[in-house]
Structures are given as structure tokens and as C-alpha cells.
Amino acid sequence: MALLRIAGLLILGNLLSLKIATQPEMFVVGISQRTNNAAENGSVGVISKTWERFVKEELLQKIPSRADPNIIALYTDYASDKNGDYTFLLGAIVKDGEHVPAGMVLKRIPAGRYAIIASERGPANAVVPAAWKRIWSMSREELGGERAYKADYEIYDQRAADPHNAQVEIRIGLR
Q: Which domains, and CATH codes, for the chain?
């Protein structure tokens, strides 16, 4: 894989780019399920069902004190690493965690260093899994550090407004 480092930005083969940023602590409110990558690659995955419920029930609009209009897909509470169980939460970053609607939960994204990777543009249900497969195969050096397995998340902003032609930003927590 070809790598080119320019002022903190890595340009990888196939247009996948990476930069490193330090960010403050944030809180996300939404609906969650416990899962793992083996289940998601099989017939018992919950991520697509969580998305279906989130959209059908218009849950984004029911989250009070949203910091912005973006949807956040958070991966947290890792049992171990990419092979273990984790909590998948679909929701939004909130200004405060004081008002959590019934049936939703509040999770923290810790302050720290995050690798920021933009997916390629295309159908969200294809480009997001493809970006994760690339992330899982990246070395520590290519990723910009060792994964912390505390919180990773996807940002669905205006670039993902059309799910058939979306680009999603993925943030990977680093040690």
C-alpha cells in the first residue's frame, strides 16, 4: 500500500485518507445493542436492525440538546479488541447528558487522540464496511498509533445525506 505523509495527513492507496486530531470529551445519546464483528458478518447482526429502527421511529429528532444535526454510530465498551464484543450505539452528540429519553442511553467518548479516516464515496452500506476492513488491516504505524479500544465512531453529516452516494468520517481512538 502506498503511503505519503504530508503535515499530519496520510494519503493511502484507493483514496482512503487519515489524519490525527486531539479532541475533547463528548457525550452521545441514542439506542444501543451489544454485538461483535463475527455476528455482524453472519445472520445474527444487530447493526442494520438498529439503523432500521432509528430511521423508522425518527429517533434522531427525539434526542434533546443535540450539539449538531449529525448522526453518530458509536462503538464502545469493548471486551477486548476487534474480535470481542462491543456496544453499538446509534444517536447524536449532546450538549449535556441531563435529559436521556426513555429507551435511550448516554455514553461517553473520552478525550484523546483519534485517527480520522474518510470512507470512499458510494452506497453507505458498502463504503463503511469497506473502510472498516481497511482499518482492521492497517498497521499501528499506518493508523498513527495503537488502537485504544475505548471508543470509535462514525459521523454521518451532510456528506452522508444521500445514503446511495455517501462519504462517512470514521474516528478511531488511539492510546
A: 3-174 (3.20.80.10)
